[in-house]
Predict the structure.
Amino acid sequence: MSSCITQFIPHTTEERDLLVVEGLITDRPQTNIIKLSRPNHLGLTTAPLPVSGCNVSVSDDSGQSFIFTETTPGTYISDPAKFQGIIGRFYTLHISTNLGNSQNFESYAMELKPVPPIDSVYYEKVVFSESNGTSAGQEGCKIFVDTHDPENKCKFYRWEYSETWEFHLPYTVPNNVCWISNNSDVINIKNTSFIGEDRISRFPLLLITNQTDRLREKYSILVNQYSLNEDEYIYWDKLQNISQQVGGLYDIIPSAIPSNIYCVDDPNQKVLGYFSVSAKSSTRIFIKDRFAGVRTEYTDQTCIADTVRGNNPIQYLNSSVWVIINNPLPPPGYRVTTRIKACYDCTVRGTKIRPDFW
């Protein structure tokens, strides 16, 4: 109680003009995205600064070149009608930036390696605590991936996933059913080069606890599986180690992770990020099951602010107060109000637009 904590940000010689590249092209007939940004000041938690006005293209070893068009600041996309990666081809990224004096960057030629289909994505219930006389049980689930390559060509794997779940408000209001989508923010990789058979069984992709409402109504997960070459696997492995570290004196710094992109005009200039070239296979599953003790964001203790008797106008209604229960019978009836808009309108958290795959 008698002490205090003061934030300390050391003086550093920050390289603010560093280029950060996030890029992935696949063999699917879809839009491919390259993102360019610059690092923020040390201590800031805002999004990276986008790099706009660049010329971005990808060429292959057959002599073809494909232009990427800037759609939003720092985001460059391909035209799926004109460009789709081909397994066995080598691809090179080309960037001409507006960082100070215009600079040119290139990636090393990267081979698009094949990836086998996903054998299965499945879940198993996890019991966090058993029910007893004083408390209810608590359950969640763990999601696993199985895959194998009978041709032994894909030794290095990476997985991403996109979650979507339906949730309901417990009140009869206009917007009481919505959906939320969320992309993975963890690194999931696996190396099978040190085992005799190129097979992966029960790879633990995701643990869903009862501390979220994901499993309360209906849940879906789309799993994307990518092939990697060994250099890219090493890159993701080092990045994973950094993300799991808690801040020691001898931790690896991000700039120490080698990129496959370099500055043509100044080979000594560092570049952060990686240009990924991968084949892709995907599988989606749905989970509609009963899980004990799954929490909800919406309880009477959280949502209800007041009960108003009669039909007289409520001051500030629909600006800072919303009606979540309207019971006119028997006269004069009553209305239950909330000061939390999310308890009245599910679009505060999600969208009313039902996903096409639902």
